[in-house]
Every structure is written in structure tokens, then in C-alpha cells.
Amino acid sequence: MSRTKAFLIILSIFMTILTTGWNCRVRPNSNESNYATKLEDILDQIKSYEQQVQLRANNIQTILNRQKIKHGTNAYYSNDERNLEFVKNFQETHTNLQHENATILMLVRNWELEGALKSMRSLEDRFNHLYKYTWTFLNDVPFTDEFKEATTLMASGKTQYGLIPSEDWDRPSWINETKFEENLLNSEKNGVLYGNSRSYRNMCRFNSGYFYKQKLLDQYQWYFRVEPDVEYFCDFQYDPFKLMRENNKKYGFVISIYEYENTIPTLWNTTKQFMEQYPQHIHPNNSLEFITNTSPIGSKALAIQSESDYNLCHFWSNFEIANLDFFRSKAYNDYFDFLEKTGGFYYERWGDAPVHSIGVALLLARDEIHHFEDIGYIHAPFESCPTSRYTRLNKRCVCDPYKEANIDMTLHSCVPKWWKFGAGKKFMNE
Ligand SMILES: *[C@@H]1O[C@H](CO)[C@@H](O)[C@H](O)[C@H]1NC(C)=O
Ligand SMILES: *[C@@H]1O[C@H](CO)[C@@H](O)[C@H](O)[C@H]1NC(C)=O
Ligand SMILES: *[C@@H]1O[C@H](CO)[C@@H](O)[C@H](O)[C@H]1NC(C)=O
Ligand SMILES: *[C@@H]1O[C@H](CO)[C@@H](O)[C@H](O)[C@H]1NC(C)=O
Ligand SMILES: *[C@@H]1O[C@H](CO)[C@@H](O)[C@H](O)[C@H]1NC(C)=O
């Protein structure tokens, strides 16, 4: 409907009101100059309405076209990649897909096939179908043909399947069986999460010190860790490996929370001994304060108390985009070996999340760690959803940032600490 037409309709309605009366009690004022004044009022109203509509349209256009607004306050790319031309041109301009030296990595069991496919479907749709990075699957038993067939068909690129050697997975023979069994029993009694599980301990130790030693990963510099049954809420719209490389990042995370202290009673004491023995490995611009500061951030007090100086903050390692060369470094391996020889992975239930996190926090510079705040992600029971509405609209996110499961909004999140003591809000004031 044209503006003139709309105006004529409104005008005729107005004339009808004037001549017939809005209702029976109020008679129209027949004063001619009042007609003119009222007409002008209405014209003004229409004009201002049209201006508002135009303004809104401009705003939406600005949001969609904007070059300056970023996905997140610490994002490196603006949203210009959202436009259709980008997607259209992508295949033509990227004849050599998989252009970063990277792989997507999943440690998974045969019976977890459905969860694996769910995660793959999500990451392919949201990111990898445009890039076709190879998927690498690792397992401590051989993958079945059924698993290989389904995952191969789900992947947009290649897939490869690795069998973890027993010495990288199983409990070493030097572990004191009596002490180990005692801890299993005590852990169960004390309600330690996964406390009575033998295989969980193997997995945590493997993820801490052996995943990057697997042959299939030798050919890569970067990995993106994916677990079964996760989901990514938003389109990536950029290659996170490229972002990491171009901005000199070594480790990327989405969620950061507090660890259960009863899984790691002596981890911090052991780490302190390591720091004393290997001062040369501690980076001068480390994130020690992020993992030791206990002052409350914001108006509310911390929910978590710690017995040691470690405040229990860690990056939730079921999501990781990181540089394998960091884990291959002498510094990280000295750290892992130091932990390994105490037997803490078996006499306690040290998780790979606090081990990676403390390693990263001590051995890397703050600026080498990246918070992917624009990638919505869920690994039950926690999720993270971008709080910026622009980001959610622009990246086609399907998530609710105000939901209870959104860990970033709760006291259990360490992300505010990262903002304050890490490199988190560097771009906030741009
Ligand atoms: C018509 O309106 C004018 C201006 O509002 C006013 O001065 C005048 O008294 C009105 N005449 C009648 C008949 O209502
Ligand atoms: C193994 O652990 C048990 C229980 O902690 C201890 O009594 C025993 O001396 C240990 N054995 C060795 C060989 O260290
Ligand atoms: C990728 O990285 C690995 C490990 O650093 C290296 O051996 C390999 O040569 C690299 N490949 C390419 C194509 O650069
Ligand atoms: C850690 O070390 C300190 C000092 O050496 C000691 O007092 C404390 O009991 C140790 N904590 C644990 C849990 O071993
Ligand atoms: C530590 O940070 C300072 C200030 O940003 C920088 O000048 C220095 O080069 C950094 N040191 C290292 C070893 O990266």
C-alpha cells in the first residue's frame, strides 16, 4: 500500500468521524479552522509514524550491514561475513578448504554413536560444512564398522579412527593397587563425582597427558575438542582456527566454572612444588591471579570456598580449541610428568580440566588464551548463550541467555574472574 493511499484512507476515516461523530454523545465541532488544525495534527502524526517506521528499518539494516559491531566484546571479526555474498562466494574463493593445519577431535566409545552423530551434525551445520576439516576419532578399543560408517557419512570432510595404545590409557603398573582401591572406596563414600570409576580416571589422565601424543595428531598443529551429545547454538561465521593463529592464541574456551575440591585435594600443593622446581617455565604474563584470586566479583559473595590457594576456577575442557604445540612443549610436559609421578590421577580423581587450566594459566601469557563468548554451547548440565541480542540474531543462535542453565549468569561461573584478571574484556572499550 502506497503512502498516498494510506493517507487517503486515514483521511477518509477522519472525515467520517468529523461528519458522523465518533459516537452519539460527542458531536463534531463544525468550526472550520478546527478542521484545519486537526488535519494538520493528523498529518503530523502520520509523518512521524512514517519516520519511525523508516528509522526502525534503517536500524535493522544497520544491524545487518554493520561493519563495526562485533559478535562479542572480545571478538576479532565484525559481522560482515554474515551477508549472503560471503556465503555465496565462499566455495569459489576457498578452493583449498581445510586451510588451517587442524583437526576436529573426539574421544568416544562405540556405544556413544548417537551422541557422537548429534555433536557432529551440530558442528557441521554451524561451522564445518563450509570448511571440511577432518574429524579424528579416538577410542581405547577398535571402532566398529557401524560407528565408522555412520560418522563417515555425517562428516563433510574426511574421518580417521585411532586406537589408543594400552600404555597411554590403562593404569600404569607402578600404581599401588591397595592405595588405589582404597581411594575408589573412599571416593564413593564421600560422594566424589565419578569417584568410583576406574575408566573415568584413565580418561582424565589420557586427556591430561596423552591425547596430543597420539600418532594421528602428529600431522596437525591445532585441534578442536568435541564430545558426544553437545550442541553449538550459533553459526560460527568464521574459522576459529584462523582466529587463533592470526591473533597468536594458544588456548580457547567457552565456559569456566569451579571444580569440585574433593576430586583434587593435593593438586595445588603438587603444582606449588612444580612452580618452585621449574620457575623458568612460569610465564611472566601468566594468569595466576585468575586461578588464585578469591575476592568476590560483583555484588554477591562467592559460593565456593577452597581449602588451598587455588580458587578452583578452570576452563571447562569438554570444549577446547587449542594449539597442540603448547601441549607438546617441554614446559607442559614437565608439568604433566610432575603430576603423573605422584599418582594423583589414580589416588585422587584429578580431572583434565583443572590440569589443562592450571597448565595454561601458568605456562601461557594471558593474551594467548581466548574466551569464545560468541559461540553458544551446551554440554549438559551447563550451557553458555551469547548475551548480546545482536549476536544472537546475526549468528542465528537458538538459545536463551536468561535460562537457569546458562552458567555465565550464575555465581558458579568463573567468567567474571576471567574478565577481571585474564585477557577477557580487552575489547570492551573499543
Ligand atoms: C472557531 O475556532 C476559533 C479558533 O479556535 C475560535 O476563536 C472561534 O471562537 C471558534 N468559533 C466557533 C463558532 O466556535
Ligand atoms: C601401598 O599402599 C598401602 C596403603 O596406602 C601401603 O600400606 C603400602 O605400604 C603401599 N605399598 C607400597 C609398596 O608402597
Ligand atoms: C602441520 O603441523 C604439524 C605439526 O606441527 C607439522 O608437522 C606439519 O608439517 C604441518 N603441516 C603443514 C601442511 O603445514
Ligand atoms: C599442602 O601443603 C601445606 C604446606 O606444606 C600443608 O600444610 C597442607 O596440609 C597440604 N595440604 C594437603 C591437602 O595436602
Ligand atoms: C608481558 O607483557 C608485557 C606488557 O604487555 C609485554 O611488554 C611483554 O613483552 C610480555 N612478556 C612476554 C614474555 O610475553
From TrEMBL:
Pfam families with a match to the protein in the record: Glyco_transf_15 (PF01793)
Statement: the UniProt record of this protein carries the keyword Iron-sulfur: no
GO molecular function per UniProt: alpha-1,2-mannosyltransferase activity
Subcellular location: Membrane
Membrane topology: Single-pass type II membrane protein
Gene3D superfamilies to which the protein is assigned, alphabetical: Spore Coat Polysaccharide Biosynthesis Protein SpsA, Chain A
Location of the active site: 320 (nucleophile)
A GO cellular component entry from the record: membrane
Keywords, alphabetical: Glycosyltransferase, Signal, Signal-anchor, Transferase, Transmembrane
UniProt cross-references to InterPro entries, sorted A to Z: Glyco_trans_15 (IPR002685), Nucleotide-diphossugar_trans (IPR029044)
Signal peptide positions (record): 1-21
PANTHER family cross-referenced by the UniProt entry: ALPHA-1,2 MANNOSYLTRANSFERASE KTR1, MANNOSYLTRANSFERASE KTR2-RELATED
Family assignment from sequence similarity: Belongs to the glycosyltransferase 15 family.
Protein name: Mannosyltransferase
UniProt organism field: Saccharomycopsis crataegensis
